[in-house]
Task: structure prediction
Amino acid sequence: MHVLVCGGGGYIGSHMLKKLAAGGVELSVLDNFSTGHREAVRWGTLIEGDLLDPASLERAFAGRRFDAVMHFCARSLVGESIAQPYDYYANNVSGTLNLLQAMRAHDVRRLVFSSTAAVFGQPVSERIDEDHPKAPINPYGASKLMVERILADAASAYGLRSVALRYFNAAGASPDGDIGESHQPETHLIPNVLRAALGSGPALKVFGDDYPTPDGTCVRDYVHVDDLAQAHQLALAYLDDNAGAHAFNLGNGHGFSVREVIAAAQAVSGQEIGYTVEPRRPGDPSVLVASSEKARRVLGWSPAYTALEPIIASAWRWHRAQPY
Ligand code: UFG
Result:
């Protein structure tokens, strides 16, 4: 089995490489390192290149026979997508189209695609399952939903088999601490909280404490990055026997507030973590919690991490070892 992993230098992509390599899968990795990290590509053959550059795609596909593609490349910040919509549609939609065309030209018929909870927009139910209305409220979510639509059309027209995995809040790090989450600039809650605990990040800000939630701060469903990687392996196997375009929501089904995350990080790190309450961040829904019943039932997915502290503890081990 030879898999092309696009975006293998990124947070979720690098954890995927590690898991696939452990299973003996042959790996090729395409990354332009615009947001990913060269040092995170520790497994597979690196092809440096960009999905917006057809020559790099030709370099990746020429002379290799891939059984499947896993596609993690994307711009993925909600706020940035509102400010720079063209970049988001170009990278996330046009870049994916280029990849799909290269796959078709080289007769590669299986794809696992990184989608997002942002395809749903403002939730209208407590738990979000796959049938929840899709009404994205920002260009990031819209760009991912457009690709999901393209995948459905590609299944009908060209027989492409695909699974779109809609991540809720990816969190944590490899338990042995060798790879983890690092974005520049960092906007995600858990890395910001842990860097505040280390005294190495900017002062922690909590964006809004007047939401209609038990403690007034936003509630999210944090799912461990290794559990996400596990879901990708199951999705790939699912495509052996299932044609068509499929989608699954991936979360652990438990919501935790921003204040609960800070309290768990204090317990894990043993550090007092101070913060200021700031105005709401534009585009943040108050609650996002997945129903992943379909992934459990159909793929047999069973996330190993359901409590918050072990997720944060894995992230803490990695952050503590960084030369901040
Ligand atoms: N938050 C803070 N302070 C910070 C960072 C975040 O209070 O320094 C809050 C946010 O306002 C939000 C919560 O913590 O309420 C989680 O924020 P993150 O930035 O960690 O994650 P998001 O929920 O915004 O993002 C996730 C995925 C995106 C996806 C989005 C859908 O990472 O890919 O959900 O809304 F698009």
About this structure: Residues 76, 78, 116-118, 140, 169, 187-189, 192, 205-207, 218, 220, 258, 281, 284-285, 288 surround UFG (CB under 6 Å).
